[in-house]
Amino acid sequence: MNLFFMQIDTESELKIFNCEALLETAYRKMLENVVNSVITPEDLYYSKHVPWIQGVVCGNAHITLKYGLILNKEELSSLEIIINQELQKDLNIISVEVSEGYKGQYKVLYVVPKILTGLNHIISELSKFKVIEESLPFKPHITLCYLKNTSNTESIKDNLSHLVNVNLGLDKIILEPN
To answer: Could you tell me which residue, 9 or 178, shows the higher pLDDT?
Structure first.
């Protein structure tokens, strides 16, 4: 697995990162096609202020392993060693879920993958680092799209239930500056 990260200039300077496992391109396209076939444009939510909250986001589909990691240069280097371990690259979707977005402004449609041993090890290691305060309970997930609060989420979930047990492939692990 490859790791990409932003350089930090000094030992003491702290940066905030999200750790993500990017899906292979073919799987991102498949998810995007499936979501676009089920969800109408009228159901999609687009933020005027947050650039990544823009309707269907499967084109950049990834498993968020941990967000808000507060790292200095030394911690980033040790995390690079952990993340660069060889991993199994296949995973399986176990559920389609919806949660409330920031301050109830929208809803988030996502799938939950069965986390494999290699990713469990990385998630366990990530939990040893400081993180920004999480406002909602966190679990690794793949965000599919952002929905308006008026969307019929139960119907959408039912129409996407065939994604359960679908296998997906991972491309690489990345640390994204937040």
So the answer is: 178
- Which amino acid makes up residue 34? V
Residue 71 pairs with which residues in a beta bridge? 15
Q: What is the pLDDT of residues 69-81, one digit of tens each?
A: 888 888 888 887 7
Half-sphere exposure of residue 133, counting CA atoms within 13 Å on the CB side? Answer: 1
Place of tokens 């966190």: 138
SS3 of 76, please?
helix
Q: Please tell me whether residue 94 adopts helix, strand or coil conformation.
A: strand
Tell me if 25 sits within 8 A of 89, measured CB to CB.
no
- Token pair, residue 45, equals 């939510």
Q: Which residues contact 155 (CB under 8 A, 6 or more apart)?
A: none
What's at 160, amino acid-wise? L
Q: Sign of the C-alpha dihedral, residues 107, 53, 17, 167?
A: positive
Q: Do residues 140 and 64 lie in contact, with contact meaning Cβ atoms separated by under 8 Å?
A: yes
Question: pTM of this prediction?
Answer: 0.80
